[in-house]
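Q: What does the predicted 3D structure of G2E3 ligase look like?
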Amino acid sequence: FLVEDTRRVIREAAKKSCFVCNKMGASITCSETGCDRTFHLPCAPNGQCVTQYCGTYRSFCWEHRPHQTVQPRPSHDNICSICLDTVENKVTYKTMACPACQDARFHRHCIQRLALHAGIAFRCPCCLNQEPFTKEMLTMGIRLSKRPPSWHSAQAVSLSGQRHSCCDAATCLCPGGREHVEEDGPWQLWLCSSCAAEGTHQRCSSLANSTSSWECSTC
């Protein structure tokens, strides 16, 4: 039944167009009841879509994605607490805030990269809050790593030789599951050309045979 269900999902995806790029093969559908917007995983950032990398891996379009209710305290410098570059003076898709201290503001891509490097030590870069902060980031679509922090040198050396080996697509279509990988064909695993911390089966992200590289939504 699993194989047949997978084939059915693939056939259905082939008939759906991505609302961001308008190309066919969109395999991700907004989880909001009654919403039929579909999109490709690589198109998610441009469409301001959110995928929650926890629980049931729910995905949402720009209209139905979760929004932060916290409003950061007024600041004169308006800088990202991570890269120290300018951010918007309000919470948006691209600008996020810490729900605990309400002082830290950061770019979405900056906090995502911090989450992947910090691993199990992930917390607010300003107030160091961990529990409410982590829960909020997961809800907002930030993907966390369960590895030790990359700055622990001994651990980093050990982990550096380990190649990422699972599909992180919101909907994995592979009959063998997310960790099944083949050398060629639709179930070969593509790693992000920028960070190599995320991967996808060729078919799960609708990658063409002529594709030479793939970049994850975080990068």
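A (community wiki): The structure tokens above were generated from the sequence. The chain has three domains: 9-60, 68-153, 166-207. The radius of gyration is 18 Å.
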